[in-house]
Amino acid sequence: xxxxxxxxxxxxxxxxxxxxxxxxxxxxxxxxxxxxxxxxxxxxxxxxxxxxxxxxxxxxxxxxxxxxxxxxxxxxxxxxxxxxxxxxxxxxxxxxxxxxxxxxxxxxxxxxxxxxxxxxxxxxxxxxxxxxxxxxxxxxxxxxxxxxxxxxxxxxxxxxxxxxxxxxxxxxxxxxxxxxxxxxxxxxxxxxxxxxxxxxxx
Length: 202
What we know:
The protein has about 200 residues and is mainly α. It has one domain (about 10-195). Helices cover about 80% and strands about 0% of the residues. It has helices spanning about 10-40, 50-75, 75-80, 85-115, 120-140, 145-150, 155-175, 180-195. The longest helix has about 35 residues, at about 85-115. The two termini are about 15 Å apart.
């Protein structure tokens, strides 16, 4: 689209249908995030950082889903106008925000949230293993947008993300620099979200 190609009506319809489908999926994740947050907040009268940080990740993911859905929804008029540069910008930022600040944060925050809610070792480990195994397959098998956005570095970024998920879980349980690691992880997520739409970096 960035090469000045004129969109045919068939291409426009395809793009609009794709965007509408993706917005529906992202909206579904927004609902799940709201459910998690709504279930968690009434359970605590006071919060230490081990509680605040996982909830903060969920809240950030919620707003990432919300704004990415809005950006992608607003891409539809640009598609009808047939403006390739505008379409590319809307899609690039919409998908980057939903993928990295949305999906990545949401998936890796779930084990942290479960650790806050229950002290049951089995549930903690099962949730952690499911999250790490799921995101590992999703990324390393090339299903994630990482491969599209960072064709030369996606395996490195995938491994870093997975390691962050493991270290966050362990550091939360043992109260070992959990806040510092969480801040570094969030900065990493913000970095790849910002760099993903930049073609020169890819």
